[in-house]
Design brief:
This protein has 315 residues and is of the alpha+beta class. The chain is built from 7 helices and 14 strands. The longest helix has 23 residues.
Length: 315
């Protein structure tokens, strides 16, 4: 159905949508809670089976929020979703005071008693797209690492002494300085096979073949792309696009006809599609590139992909 450059980042945004959806369910209440709020415990059975924290805290136990743990979040260079790359401080899991004097880590095992106030805060803390506005303080840049996302590397696997050419997919900053029980370092990198799939590797296993476009972009070196689709996908990944609301509805979802009309009149340059978990519905999101010249090339390719002619407005 969608056979053009317009659907340049479908996999990326499906993954992002799933990630945000999963986080939203577990993180929202933490953001809404304040010291002094009354909460009640409702612990997932699987959680009870894997920890003794709630052994003497039956469901229905009431308590009062008395504090929050600190959490450090590493926002990666790719994909850029909301915040720019860096290290951020935010509210971690909640600490709950019980009437018998115990202080229990609530994590995500509590519910707010005042549901009306919870609903009011939830509405007040969301932006026009419905995304929760989380209070974060930027602490600094990402820690230095030897390899960056999209670097082409050679990885040696000690279990069979095989060597493979791969790319750096993800940097697990939380594993920095972490050790296994045998005192070996926790793997810092998630590396991708050229034919798909990923595995983990630590720095000692990896040898650089060639820097990828992420490193080149941040070091002002020339970027290399196989085609326009790869170029557009890269700049979408690093946050160089803006999502555009549908002027008809004020929402961020579009129909195919609406999006193509918007590309023709120059309102947007292209679009991405995504599916939410366990749903067959396709969501179309409009994108406008910050680089106008790139945006016009994407717009032209988008229209051509649907057998439409570019207009003066779109170019």
């Amino acid at each position: 159905m969608y056979n053009s450059v317009a659907v340049l980042c479908q996999t990326i945004f499906v993954h992002s949508a799933q990630t945000l959806s999963n986080k939203e369910e577990s993180m929202t209440l933490t953001e809404l809670l304040r010291i002094g709020d009354e909460v009640t415990f409702k612990v997932d059975p699987e959680t009870r089976n894997h920890t003794d924290t709630y052994k003497h805290v039956p469901d229905g136990t009431k308590g009062v929020v008395c504090g929050f743990y600190d959490a450090v979040i590493y926002e990666p260079r790719v994909p850029v979703l909301v915040h720019q790359p860096g290290v951020y401080h935010t509210k971690g899991s909640v600490s709950v005071w019980l009437a018998d004097g115990r202080i229990i880590r609530g994590d995500y095992a509590v519910e707010m008693v005042d549901k009306d106030e919870e609903a009011r805060r939830d509405i007040a803390m969301r932006d026009e797209r419905g995304i929760l506005i989380r209070a974060r303080v930027r602490l600094g840049d990402l820690p230095e690492t030897k390899f960056w996302e999209q670097d082409k590397v050679r990885v040696r696997f000690p279990h069979d002494d095989s060597v493979r050419e791969m790319t750096i997919a993800i940097i697990n900053y939380h594993n920095l300085h972490e050790r296994r029980t045998d005192d070996s370092p926790m793997p810092l990198y998630e590396v991708a096979y050229l034919d798909g799939g990923t595995t983990f590797a630590d720095e000692a296993q990896i040898e650089l073949i060639e820097r990828g476009n992420v490193w080149k972009h941040y070091h002002s070196e020339p970027l290399v792309f196989a085609d326009l689709k790869e170029e557009a996908a890269f700049f979408t990944l690093i946050g160089e696009t803006a999502e555009v609301a549908n002027p008809t509805t004020g929402l961020f979802s579009w129909t195919k006809d609406e999006i193509l009309s918007a590309v023709k009149n120059g309102t947007v340059h292209g679009f991405t599609t995504s599916r939410m978990p366990f749903s067959t519905s396709v969501f179309i999101n409009a994108r406008r590139f910050k680089d106008a010249a790139l945006g016009k090339r994407v717009a032209q390719a988008t229209l051509e992909g649907f057998g439409l002619e570019a207009t003066a407005a779109s170019l």
